[in-house]
Design goal:
heterodimer; A: about 375 residues; alpha/beta; Rossmann fold; six-stranded mixed sheet; about 35% helix; globular; B: about 475 residues; mainly alpha; about 0% strand
């Protein structure tokens, strides 16, 4: 005979199941859930990593490198025998803030249809906003399994200071990967640095991870919108142009002359990245805005006082030369008008200038 | 209503249902409902209007009760108690400004008490004046109906709402250049107005039994159905309040099940679909026909799960306090024709419109003997469905949506007449085929109608239609 359910047992069972499920979920913390993706199967892969704060861009920022890679077109593209695979590593200027995928450096290189070593160059955009050398090395380290023929690392002074390395959200939320990088590349960093978010047992439970899990689902849903519109970024009709007038400020990350930069830069992380791949790696000092506004004799732009950037260029030149790194200094390539909302973000025309130089460098490598 | 408000409502309803009986239950529901009017009201960029707008909802409810109740009814103990409870709750909400550093019932700090006292005085004067008139002039009830329709018109018309915002900003010395039609968001007014009009109209026709003030006010602003309906009938609601309800285990489980289903529909299915549902931006961004259909289907299901989810939650919470709210949805997308769809989609709104517009309109138009029957039907359907469209907002697209359905209902009616005479309905296979075909056709007709409903401009809708059909 079927009996009607009673309220108290139902509530008790529900509570027990919820608690059990919540803590059993901790066992899944080692399963790379981010690798389960609808991209590259149901939806086409993204041309660049997911990143964004506006829902209008059908994109979101998440701190799951597995999910970021799983959504990238590179992961789902088998390497053709004719393909000369080039990875572009860098910050938001490589990722392409305010640029469509076709307008980014990778997009413009691909539209050039150039050849290198008798093969067709196919560039992949592995840039990611936020500036940190360690974040870029983390991405490069993960990307190496996808058979690059060449790595081009575009970087800038702002990525170098010690205090920028562990604070990038992607880095701060990937303590296990940081630990692996420290071991693998012998980096003089502390794996227990408080800047890294080590998840406690409770933080690995379902309730605590609900936001991260929801982000994974949202990323898949945005795949539908990426697929149907080809849009992966919100492009405002108007935005504030990069600052060209400045205060009389000589400081860079709390230091000013006569102090020198040398001890504040994480050169060892640069070395780790330059030696990570067993394929040619080209280091590019990316273009910056050189202002002619108020106090431009003190600062090149909002980020850099002249003394700091000039010293950085000398240091980088000396270091790359002493280590035999392939290096291209394109710091003054683009005129002031070819920057958008920051001293590092180029317009499509600025990106075309950069693509021309980088394209030449790729071709010259084989020659 | 967000999850916090829903959770608080469930908890409050459980406590009221489990711990109270009879009159105390009615008073507690009244207290909770008045509180909810203020708490659920979203933030408004006009200072203190998140307090004044709910206060106006309460004032309109009081006004309607006074003009529809018998002379001197307010002097009864029960009604005086109701007045005291309402005034007490409003006063307490206002006094929170002196007790707590940050507002916690309203979104901004309520106005000073002296101003609220002035508002009370004005309400008493206005209610007294209209009540005195209503005893002497038959047109007073119609005047109140027109007042409610006028407010609806003001709120539903983007142009008028914008002008109202400019006016209110000027009045309160706020910059007018940032005025927007969205400034004056009056939570639940569409439902409050329709409940009040139902009472006024039924009172005019002598069809409504006398309701006490606590019953009446609780009915108008009943917290589970305040923001998204359903539109109950006063006499039915009052009947439930009068019942000697005791919350049983079975009742709790059944209500809980309904709430869980509603939460799942709204916060899981609908909110997921909302990410990919058709909207103004997608209307111009989507590149292929196939994807446009997918976004349209997503919208069709999102709006259903969102709305029916809220209804399930409202019905479940109400069940906990012994109120059996009417159903609003009955699997509308599985209906084989448009008439059946409208009998199962937003049922309480359709019934309201049928009772207070469609039937009177049809009686009126039958007076024009020279009009052919089909024209009467077409006009009736078009006018009724356009009115439903206008209830959602006074924009060209809502009118087009209404007209789309009006025309659809007319054509379906003609087709039914025609097919009944022509086709052999005893053939089981044909019947099944017609049934399945009817469901698919009806669903797609409704889905295509959403192209008007979902978008802000006819040009966008046209663009979407072109994309949907291969251009």
């Amino acid at each position: 005979m079927q009996t009607e359910p009673r309220l108290l047992p139902v509530l008790l069972k529900a509570t027990l199941l919820f608690v059990l499920f919540n803590f059993t979920f901790i066992l899944t913390s080692n399963i790379p859930l981010g690798k389960f993706s609808l991209y590259n199967s149901v939806f086409p892969g993204r041309e660049r990593f997911p990143f964004g704060e506006s829902q209008k861009g059908y994109n979101l920022s998440l701190f799951n490198l597995d999910a970021m890679f799983a959504s990238h077109v590179m992961v789902g593209t088998p390497k053709d025998s004719d393909e000369y695979r080039v990875f572009l590593i860098g910050d938001s200027s490589v990722w392409g803030t305010l640029l469509t995928p076709e307008q980014t450096l990778a997009g413009q290189l691909n539209s050039q249809e150039i050849s290198a070593c008798g093969r067709t160059v196919r560039a992949y955009n592995l840039g990611y906003p936020y500036i940190s050398l360690l974040q870029e090395v983390m991405i490069l380290d993960e990307a190496l399994q996808y058979q690059p023929d060449m790595v081009i690392w575009l970087t800038t002074l702002e990525s170098f200071p010690h205090d920028k390395q562990l604070t990038a959200p992607l880095v701060a939320n990937s303590p296990d990967r940081v630990r692996q990088l420290i071991t693998k590349y012998h980096l003089p960093l502390d794996p227990n640095d408080p800047a890294l978010n080590h998840a406690s047992t409770w933080e690995q439970a379902f309730v605590s991870r609900r936001r991260a899990l929801a982000d994974l689902i949202r990323l898949q849903l945005y795949g539908a919108l990426w697929s149907s519109t080809g849009i992966d970024q919100f492009y405002p009709e108007d935005y504030e142009r990069a600052q060209t007038d400045f205060e009389e400020d000589y400081e860079f990350h709390g230091i000013a002359p006569p102090a020198t930069l040398k001890d504040t830069l994480s050169i060892h992380i640069l070395d780790a990245g330059m030696n990570a791949a067993d394929v040619p790696t080209l280091l590019v000092n990316e273009p910056i805005l050189i202002s002619d506004g108020i106090n431009s004799h003190i600062r090149y732009n909002f980020l850099y006082p002249r003394w700091a950037f000039d010293e950085y260029r000398v240091l980088l030149e000396e270091h790359t030369s002493s280590r035999g790194y392939r290096y291209l200094d394109l710091w003054n390539l683009a005129p002031m008008d070819e920057f958008t909302n920051s001293g590092l973000h180029l317009t499509p025309a600025g990106e075309a200038m950069l693509a021309e130089k980088v394209g030449e460098a790729i071709q010259n490598f084989c020659e | 209503m967000g999850l916090t408000q829903i959770s608080a409502s469930i908890l409050a309803a459980l406590l009221v249902g489990a711990l109270t009986r009879g009159a105390p239950r009615t008073y507690l529901l009244l207290v909770l409902s008045v509180l909810a009017v203020y708490w659920f009201q979203p933030a408004i960029p006009l200072r203190s209007f998140d307090f004044w707008i709910p206060s106006l909802s309460i004032a309109l409810a009081l006004l309607t009760w006074f003009v529809t109740s018998q002379a001197g009814a307010w002097r009864s103990r029960q009604n005086l108690m109701g007045l005291f409870v309402i005034a007490g709750v409003v006063t307490l909400i206002d006094l929170t400004r002196y007790i707590f550093p940050d507002p916690f019932i309203t979104t901004t700090t309520p106005p000073r008490f002296i101003i609220v006292l002035g508002f009370f005085a004005l309400t008493v004067i206005a209610v007294s004046a209209v009540t005195i008139f209503s005893r002497r002039l038959a047109l007073t009830l119609s005047f109140v109906i027109l007042l409610l329709l006028g407010i609806l018109l003001l709120l539903k018309s983007p142009i008028l709402s914008y002008q109202l915002s400019v006016f209110l900003r000027t009045l309160t010395n706020r910059p007018t250049d940032t005025a927007s039609a969205l400034d004056v968001r009056w939570l639940g007014f569409s439902y409050i107005a329709f409940r009040l009009i139902h009472i006024l109209r039924d009172n005019q026709l002598g069809r409504l039994p006398e309701l006490s003030l606590p019953e009446f006010a609780t009915y108008v602003v009943f917290f589970p159905s305040l923001s998204a309906g359903p539109i109950d009938r006063a006499e039915r609601f009052s009947g439930d309040l009068k019942k000697n309800f005791a919350l049983t285990q079975d009742e709790t489980l059944s209500a809980g099940q309904r709430i869980v289903i509603g939460l799942f529909k709204k916060f899981v299915i609908a909110d997921i679909l909302a990410l990919i549902a058709l909207n103004d931006a997608l209307a111009v961004q989507v590149r292929t026909t196939g994807w446009m259909w997918i976004h349209l289907y997503a919208y069709a299901f999102q709006i259903y799960f969102d709305f029916s989810g809220y209804t399930d939650i409202a019905i479940g919470i109400a069940q906990l306090v012994g109120i059996k709210l009417p159903e609003n949805f009955a699997s509308p997308y599985t209906k084989p024709n448009l008439t059946q769809f409208w009998n199962s989609w937003h049922i309480t709104l359709t019934q309201w419109i049928r009772a207070y517009f469609f039937n009177p309109f049809n009686r009126w138009i039958r007076g024009y003997k020279s009009l052919p029957a089909w024209a009467m039907l077409l006009l009736g359907q078009l006018a009724t469905m356009s009115l439903i469209g206008l209830w959602h907002g006074i924009t060209v697209n809502f009118i087009l949506w209404g007209a789309w359905h009006g025309l659809g209902l007319f054509l379906q009616n003609r087709w039914s007449d025609f097919s009944m005479r022509r086709f052999n309905t005893n053939n089981a296979r044909l019947q099944s085929a017609l049934q399945v075909g009817g469901i698919l056709l009806t669903f797609h007709f409704v889905a295509l109608g959403w192209v008007f409903f979902a978008l802000g401009e006819p040009s966008l809708s046209w663009h979407v239609f072109l994309r949907l059909f291969g251009s």
